[in-house]
Amino acid sequence: MQTVRTLTKGQVVIPSRIRKHLAIEKGSLLEIALVGDHIEMRPVPADPIAAFCGSLKDRDSLAQGLIDEHRQEVCRDGKR
């Protein structure tokens, strides 16, 4: 973890190594949030839709869960 000093108007210089790693350039948008007792900053993707694409693939499908539940109900109802 690196330490930086605040400048005029609360500005902070993000170290070069971190900027390069996250592809932060002049004019890049950053999301900043107060989380408990600290600040978190994240670069905003140039194309948020493309960045989000595929992020839910590893999760169970809600639709598939409903289909499975319905099949179980049909089986139960058929055995009565």
Report on the architecture of this protein:
The chain has 80 residues and is α+β, with helices and mostly antiparallel strands. It has one domain: Pemi-like Protein 1, Chain: D. The chain is 35% helix and 15% strand. A two-stranded antiparallel ribbon has the order 1-2. Strand 1 and strand 2 form a beta hairpin. The model has no long low-confidence stretch (mean pLDDT 86).
Furnish the topology, listing elements before pairings.
Layout: H1 16-21, E1 30-35, E2 38-43, H2 48-52, H3 62-78
Antiparallel strand pairs: 1-2
Summarize the structure.
The protein is of the alpha+beta class and 80 residues long. The chain is 35% helix and 15% strand. The protein has helices at residues 16-21, 48-52, 62-78; strands spanning 30-35, 38-43.
Supply the number of helical segments. 3
Question: For the residues shown, what is the average pLDDT?
Answer: 86
User: Which term fits the overall shape?
Assistant: elongated
What is the terminal separation in angstroms?
A: 65 Å
| Class from helix and strand fractions | alpha+beta
CATH topology: the name is Pemi-like Protein 1, Chain: D
Note poorly predicted spans.
none
Name the helicity range. 25-40%
Number of DSSP strands? 2
* Major sheet description: 2 strands, antiparallel
Radius of gyration: 23 Å
